[in-house]
Amino acid sequence: VTFVCKTGNDLFGVTTRQQLAEEGIDTSFVFTDPHEPSGVALIAVDNRAENTIVVASGANASLLPLDINKALAAIDACDLVLMQLETPMPTIEYVASLAAERGKRVVLNPAPAATLSEQLLKNLYLITPNETEAELITGIPVRDERSAEQAARTIHRAGVRHVIVTLGKKGALLCEGGRCEVIPAHRVEAVDTTAAGDVFNAGLVVALSEGRNLTDAVRFGAKAAAISVTRMGAQASAPYRSETDAFYG
Q1: How many CA atoms lie within 13 A of 179 on its CB side?
Q2: Which of 48-52, 66-70, 196-200 shows the lowest mean pLDDT across its residues?
Q3: Partner of 164 for a Cys bridge, out of 117, 128, 147, 155, CB 3.0 to 4.6 A?
């Protein structure tokens, strides 16, 4: 795994690079902004395990296409590119275009929710919005499986090859071409849902990188996410591969 991002020249940035390296992640393209602080988030979790997040983007907001040009070797060497929307939209669009031109599978977790351009959607292999994000992209209120499928098919018609609408404890709706199915979530006792979407996407892409089909990849991602919500914290809640393989909840 190669991580491309930008941190500040501060303790948070140093710690982030160190922690990534300790986990065996390639940090060659973790850039340092000499002026902006590292991005941070303040997370509040209520008694239903739901969260509210306040983000100070910091150096995240200064990851620019010029930085991406320094990481072209990483894009050329990869099979999949996974992105989310905590970096500037022009950078997201630039990466998607570069990667698609090179025949890479581009996966977008469109969080935090934002409107997306037609060209960006056409460059995506897979998109994984939750109900709120799917509604913002399509204008269709997502309230149940039927409306989730309507939103997914609308996104597919906009050019995205495959769509997964995550439905929280109800699971995930996978629309692969013209076929849609709901893959149930695992029943667990949630204590903190922070980072569940991030963990789901990470597990999903791990499985795809190993050649699994989309249905199996969603199931693997759902297992990883189920473990994460039983733990407090964001990064700290992400399970290791051995834990995910051993999970039968």
Answers
A1: 5
A2: 48-52
A3: 128
